[in-house]
Amino acid sequence: MARNKGDFRQTQKKKKDGKLVRIDDGGGASMDGICDDLLLEILLRLSDQRLAIQCSVVCKRWRMLIWSPQFVGAFKGKRPTTLVMQVGECMRIMLCGRKYCRPTDNVVYQKQLSSFTSYLNFIPEDGLMNIKACFNDLLLVERFRDERRKLYICNPFTRQWFLLPNLNLNPVSYYGEKFGLSCEEVPDSGNKLLFKYRVSIVYDHIKVANFRWKTRKWSRSYIGEGLSPLDGTDNLVSLNGNFYCIMTCSKTKTIIVVVFDPGRNKFVGRIELPKTDRFPPYVSTPPLDLSYPKFSLGVSEGRLRLAMVRPANPEKEEEEEQNYMWKVWENNNGSWSLVYNRACFPTWQDKPQIIYPDKIWFHPENGEVMFSISEIFQRVLCHNMREGTVEEILEILKRYDIVNFRGRSENQITSIQVTLSATGLPPFPFHLTRLIPPTPAPN
């Protein structure tokens, strides 16, 4: 049935939550005399991605332009990165400038959300939710209900989701899992943006579950003899279609970076860690003391990076008297080059920043910026490695940050785990727009 000019349609499934939008083909028709190049320049001046989505339903021509690779690449390049910080059941969403990441000076948009559901309420069912991995504007979300787990690939901006098949893992295997999410454009797909999605999970220290988009099924394999993920490190790092993970090798008693090809479902290479002073020559079980370095692997500005934080004076036992060295390397064709080598950061709020970080993250698009968190310090900090400055971007110890965190009481704040999804969320949503059914179309 054809729509007449001035008809209305509802944009949401629930009537009480929906909005009535007037359908008027005159808007698109009035620009028929404008060439595609000029119209593309006009659309590139839209202020945010949600407006772009709304404009894509004006007419067929606008939709083809807005979802074209030329528009997506240009629009994405002009927008800042979105950082999603999860603290228990709460998140903070920030759009920070590319050059700096200072909430007080350069934040375009900042909003504190009371719960996960207010940001990911389009995902069906109820239950606890956790971000397990992210890639560009995609999130891999874990949802628990009645001790049953479901995994979703979702796009918060287009409000689309895809439910992964049940993996049927023993809940005991959930501890220590490493997740990886990647998305690749299908070559020779013409004017359409077609993608294939991959998810890999390292579990039980020696096993890998790999979701193949072509078959929509999980396949399983083993990491390899003598290899095991290093405790305390982050998830799998996605770069150029491969996953990277810091592991220990029981044969050589060394720590290495292992390369996993999800397309072939096997490990295809290893990268030795850079040589540096006071570096552990071998490892069997990581000692539970401050003399053991803290490692982090990530991608910044499209390159694989490794960070190490270690005590400058391991012989000192008191943490309050300890200074720490930050070293950052960049990998190029298997070889490491030192990018930053800094001692303790300067005084912050009348206190030297000497707390040993529990986790470290890279800014996806600004190689000068890193993030850290300390359970003792109870804050997420932003470090400018070039200038040697540090700023607070999130305080953990607040009632709304720790309530309902997997049933833990407020007296157990020292055991809280924080997920900082700072590995990249460019704000233009395009990856999930081409998913085949049963994924719903964007609103």
Q: Estimate the strand proportion.
A: 35-45%
Distance between the termini: 20 Å
Q: What Rg, in angstroms, do the CA atoms define?
A: 23 Å
CATH superfamily of the largest domain: TolB, C-terminal domain
- Which segments are poorly predicted (pLDDT under 50) over 5 or more consecutive residues? 1-27, 95-117, 284-290, 398-443
CATH class of the largest domain: Mainly Beta
Number of H- or I-type helical stretches: 7
Give average pLDDT, whole number. Answer: 67
Give the biggest beta sheet. 5 strands, antiparallel
CATH topology of the largest domain: Neuraminidase
Assembly state: single chain
What is the architecture of the largest domain at the second tier of CATH?
6 Propeller
Proportion of helical residues: under 10%
Got a strand count? Answer: 29
Q: Given the helix and strand composition, which structural class is it?
A: mainly beta
Shape: globular
Number of domains: 2
Give me a quick take on this structure.
With 443 residues, the chain is mainly beta. The chain has seven helices and 29 strands. The model is unreliable at 1-27, 95-117, 284-290 and 398-443 (pLDDT under 50).
How is the topology of this model organized?
Blueprint: E1 8-10, E2 20-22, H1 26-29, H2 36-43, H3 49-55, H4 60-66, H5 69-77, E3 81-87, E4 90-96, H6 103-106, E5 109-113, E6 128-135, E7 138-145, E8 148-155, E9 160-163, E10 178-185, E11 195-203, E12 207-212, E13 217-222, E14 227-229, E15 237-239, E16 242-249, E17 254-261, E18 266-272, E19 294-300, E20 303-311, E21 324-332, E22 335-342, E23 345-348, E24 351-353, E25 359-362, E26 369-374, E27 379-384, E28 389-395, H7 399-402, E29 418-421
Antiparallel strand pairs: 1-2, 3-4, 3-29, 4-5, 6-7, 7-8, 8-9, 10-11, 11-12, 12-13, 14-16, 15-16, 16-17, 17-18, 19-20, 20-21, 21-22, 23-24, 25-26, 26-27, 27-28
